[in-house]
Amino acid sequence: MTGKLEGRKAVVTGAGSGMGRAIAVRFAAEGAAVAALDLDHAAAEATARTIVEAGGTAHGVQVDVSDSGSVTAAIDSSVRALGGIDVLANIAGILDGYAPVLDTSEELWDRIIGVDLKGVFLVTKATLPTMLEGGGGTIVNMASIAGFVARGGGAAYTSAKHGVVGLTKQTAADYGAQGIRVNAICPGAVETAMTKKILEDGEAAVIESINAVPAGRHAQPEEIANLALFLANDESDFIHGAAYVIDGGWTIV
């Protein structure tokens, strides 16, 4: 590790598992003090414990990113624990089982939009004042190839991820001159416990399209963490409002 985030204070949502956990661990390994946020408090604390046992600094914090009160409390707790926030990674997200419109209930729609889009908005809004007071910061949002194309998710998930790409660009435009950089990551299929269940339960055509990517495999969470690290540190200083596709070639075929 090269200390690319040495001295930085980072908040990572969805840090209890999958890509969020990999990103939190990688940020800490690169020198950041990390607030690991997750709906599952025990999972958040487990990630923090892993970081501390490796010699890093971390705190586990419970949050429901779809609830403004919970978000405010979690960010306030993170600021107290870390002494500020320089980096925010909005990674928390859920899938919709590739449900098309007619199979998407209003409850499912609200739940997906609430976590995957509203959650990014709420956490960003709660974090920006601290970043601005500190002179700037970097925000990395988890979008998806479903933010660009169909078949990356169902009606709700695809709509939410298109929204995340738009929110990323607008936030970058609004706050870039004040030292805030905002970019998005758009993965294809990533090998996590959550996506494994979708693949097991999903329709054959969807599974076939995922398995046929030119790379011939799914991404590992650590590969997504590599991109998150790049977008969070000063090497990407001239990158504002970008949405990086990392999909093994899924969207080119």
UniProtKB/TrEMBL annotation:
Keywords: Oxidoreductase. Signal peptide: none annotated. Its EC number is 1.1.1.47. GO terms for molecular function: glucose 1-dehydrogenase [NAD(P)+] activity. InterPro entries: NAD(P)-bd_dom_sf, Sc_DH/Rdtase_CS, SDR_fam. Belongs to the short-chain dehydrogenases/reductases (SDR) family. This is Glucose 1-dehydrogenase. It comes from Herbiconiux oxytropis.
